[in-house]
Backbone:
């Protein structure tokens, strides 16, 4: 099997101890050639300053996390979400991100109307695609694990994401995070269907047992996901981009970030 | 909307405080017309004694939980699982269960071979279908939520279960638990596809947030699942059986079981 594509660090992986400047310096120090910031650390540093620092460090930007979160109880909330996504597109463009990753949003608080929430996601995406195309920014729909359906993403499967891409057309794609899709019986066929629309590939692992539905991800190799197998599907589909390591984990957040980056570099070579 | 089908109590709902005899007496006391035992409490009471008590209380048996758990590291483990499923079919037949519910099993310990585990499930099911048909016992494949894929069920979606039913033929069906399937974008179409193969309907709820991947289910109405909406899909498909309430919850296990049964009776009428 071919070596994995170049590594990228998603900043959430060390979010408890490092801001964006420390992440950029850490990538340079550990030989990690790319980064994927979350918007909170990007805004805290300032976009212009971040652009300079990322350029000075010679880093690629595999994505910006995250747009989305379209469903809301009322029209004002939904309009605010769309406006916020327009700002996210501008930020992603400014830092030269390969894509804007979309976590589409869950049910509005108290709602049981799943079809309604899916409609709000669809409407929100349609509303921003013109801006995205104008900025040359790929909108990467990230299907999230079904256990996040209520509160984070009513977009649950790769097939569902690709159905939306079919509708949205040029400028749309998918972000494949192995953590969210590894269980899917349709994974192989949907990866082939995705083809060149795979805009990002995220690696982490499913620990057995998993004790938290959000903050207990493993580093590659700590769990049961056949990451190289899913990476091979992405490559067969034509993906040639970064392998972005994104870990939401109370256990790893408590560690020295330099140690976490060492582990990631080692595991990228061994387990991705 | 029509009233929900008759209520059934799954014994796991009060497993910390009641054995099968107490569950049978509790159903009679609370006017619950059916029961669905787990095998551990059935065996603890003794099958013959349970048959008498269930008959004397005039209860229907909406299912026996559970067969399955086919994947194992070695051939001896897989053969033992098949033998155990044959005993489960006998027990289900003895108590007059409407079906034997199958929780098919996850990855063998340490394995990352999801296709392999799925093959073990398929092989195991093929091995027992002759026994099931001879006993007139419906094998009800229960797709489990994808968050259980590693350690409980590599069978994750209703579509995947129905693909297996297509292959297994007569005597196979599905157990639809709203907790496991509510998030599925293909739910409506797969429920229609299931038709008369829906052998059981389980109700509980998805709490927001959910703090444990196994033991934090809500009673109907405590969460975000549109249970009447999914029940209507089952009825449109032809289902006329029980609404079985199955709650795995540390919070409800700590309560007085009589209070839990009162809540279930009330919520069956109000939220199912």
Residues:
């Amino acid at each position: 099997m071919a070596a994995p594509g170049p590594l990228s660090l998603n900043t959430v992986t060390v979010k408890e101890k490092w801001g964006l400047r420390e992440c950029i310096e850490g990538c340079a120090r550990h030989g990690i050639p790319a980064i994927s910031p979350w918007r909170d650390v990007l805004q805290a540093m300032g976009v212009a300053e971040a652009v300079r620092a990322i350029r000075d460090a010679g880093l690629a930007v595999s994505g910006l996390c995250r747009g989305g979160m379209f469903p809301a109880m009322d029209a004002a909330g939904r309009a605010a979400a769309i406006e916020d996504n327009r700002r996210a597109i501008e930020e992603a463009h400014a830092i030269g991100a390969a894509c804007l990753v979309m976590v589409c949003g869950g049910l509005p608080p108290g709602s049981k109307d799943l079809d309604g929430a899916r409609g709000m996601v669809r409407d929100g995406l349609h509303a921003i695609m013109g801006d995205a195309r104008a900025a040359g920014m790929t909108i990467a729909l990230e299907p999230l694990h079904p256990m996040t359906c209520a509160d984070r993403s009513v977009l649950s499967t790769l097939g569902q994401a690709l159905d939306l891409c079919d509708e949205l057309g040029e400028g749309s794609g998918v972000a494949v995070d192995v953590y969210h899709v590894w269980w899917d019986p349709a994974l192989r066929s949907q990866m082939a269907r995705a083809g060149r629309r795979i805009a990002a590939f995220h690696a982490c692992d499913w620990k057995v047992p998993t004790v938290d539905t959000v903050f207990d991800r493993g580093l590659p190799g700590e769990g049961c996901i056949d990451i190289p197998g899913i990476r091979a599907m992405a490559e067969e589909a034509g993906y040639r981009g970064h392998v972005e390591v994104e870990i939401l984990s109370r256990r790893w957040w408590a560690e020295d970030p330099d140690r976490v980056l060492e582990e990631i570099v080692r595991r990228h070579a061994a387990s991705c």
